[in-house]
Design a protein that fits this description.
Layout lengths: L4 H12 L2 E4 L4 E2 L6 E6 L2 E6 L5 E7 L4 E2 L10 E4 L3 E6 L8 H18 L4 H16 E4 L2 E4 L5 H8 L3 H14 L2 E4 L2 E4 L2
Antiparallel strand pairs: 1-8, 2-7, 3-6, 3-8, 4-5, 4-7, 9-10, 10-12, 11-12
Helix pairs in contact: 4-5
C-alpha cells in the first residue's frame, strides 16, 4: 500500500464527522479536545454550585457547537433534552467553524443579559421569547416553543424559584400572551 498524506487527511476527516446518537436525558461525554456539533435535537450544558444547585449555561440545537473546550467550569455536563444526533469536531477542524464559534459567544451573552433582567416577569418573558426564536416554529396561535422545559428547568436558568415561574406563567396565560399545547408553550408575539 502506498502512503498518501491525503489519505491520512481523509481518514481524519471521516473520524471527525463520526455521528453519535444520544437519548433524552443522556449525558454527552466531554473531553478537552472534542467539540460536538448538534445535528438534530436540543441539549443544555450545565454545572453545579458547591451546594449542589444546578446552573444552566446554555441551550443548543442544530448547527450549534458544544463541549468542554468552551468552558472553564467544573463540573461541566451536556444533557440531552430530546433525542440528539451529534457529530464530533476534532481540533484540527475548529478553524473552519468561525461562524459557529461566534454564534456560541453571542447566545451565551444574550442569555446572560436575560438572566439579569428586572423585573422577574420581564426576565421570564424575554427568556421565553429567546427560546421561541431559537427553538420555535410558527403556528396559528403564535410561536410554539418546540420542546418541553419543566418549570424547574426554567427556574434554574433564570435564578428564580419554581413557584415564581409557575405563577408568572399563569399570569401570562391570564393576560392572553401565552397558551399551552400538550405541555408546550405558545407565545402570542
Amino acid at each position: 500500500m502506498i502512503y498518501s498524506p491525503n489519505a491520512d487527511y481523509q481518514s481524519t476527516l471521516e473520524k471527525s464527522r463520526t455521528t453519535r446518537l444520544f437519548v433524552r436525558h443522556e449525558i454527552i461525554p466531554t473531553h478537552n479536545d472534542i467539540l460536538w456539533r448538534i445535528e438534530k435535537g436540543i441539549v443544555r450544558n450545565l454545572t453545579l454550585t458547591e451546594n449542589g444547585t444546578l446552573i444552566t449555561l446554555g441551550y443548543w440545537s442544530s448547527g450549534d457547537l458544544v463541549g468542554y473546550p468552551f468552558s472553564i467550569v467544573k463540573p461541566y455536563q451536556i444533557q440531552c433534552l430530546t433525542n440528539v444526533e451529534t457529530s464530533v469536531l476534532l481540533p484540527q477542524f475548529w478553524h473552519e467553524e468561525l461562524d459557529a464559534f461566534m454564534s456560541h459567544i453571542q447566545e451565551v451573552e444574550k442569555l446572560l443579559s436575560i438572566v439579569h433582567t428586572k423585573p422577574i416577569s420581564s426576565r421570564l418573558w424575554q427568556f421565553l421569547v429567546w427560546l421561541s426564536k431559537k427553538f420555535g416554529r410558527d403556528v396559528e396561535q403564535g410561536k410554539l416553543i418546540d420542546f418541553y422545559a419543566t418549570h424547574q428547568e426554567i427556574a434554574e436558568v433564570l435564578n428564580m424559584s419554581r413557584v415564581t415561574v409557575t405563577r408568572t406563567l399563569q399570569q401570562f396565560e391570564t393576560e392572553g400572551i401565552l397558551f399551552r399545547y400538550k405541555r408546550r408553550l405558545i407565545l402570542k408575539l
